[in-house]
Amino acid sequence: MKTHKGNLRYSFRLYIVLGGRRVLGKGGAQILEAVDRLGSISAAASELRMSYRFVWNYIGRMEERLGRQVIVTRRGGALHGRRKGGGGTELTRLGKALLEDYTMTETQLQKELASRRPRLRNRERAD
User: Which segments of 26-79 are extended strands (E)?
Assistant: First the structure.
């Protein structure tokens, strides 16, 4: 049997769930963070190397499951009374709260798990 070098450690996947359905995970948190920071779905998608359609659909599924908006978009361009490129996207209070809660929970869990190591009994180490 092959022996692996390194130490055992804990790993986890964190999701915010509603009614048994995933609302937000690591990828969704990255999307919300990028949209919040960049003010644009397109720029967020580009930075994350995801398609605009994927990001738009991910946010749409999140909003559908929650029954509330997590982003607000405003249209730009000359046709909408603004100079070209004047549109943008921002997180709603709910979107910001979800992102903050997810990020804080993930950080707390990472800190806790980093301080712990799986303990093997002596006989299990010999196997």
Answer: 71-74
Domains defined for the chain, CATH in brackets:
16-49+57-114 (1.10.10.10)
**Residue reference for tokens 């509330």:** 68
Q: What is the pLDDT of residues 58-92, one digit of tens each?
A: 999 999 999 999 999 988 755 545 445 678 999 99
Tell me which amino acid residue 22 is.
R
CB burial of 59-71 (b: ≥16 within 10 Å; e: otherwise) equals beebbebbeeebb
- Indicate the pTM of the whole model: 0.81
Rounded to whole angstroms, the Cα distance separating 121 from 27 reads 36
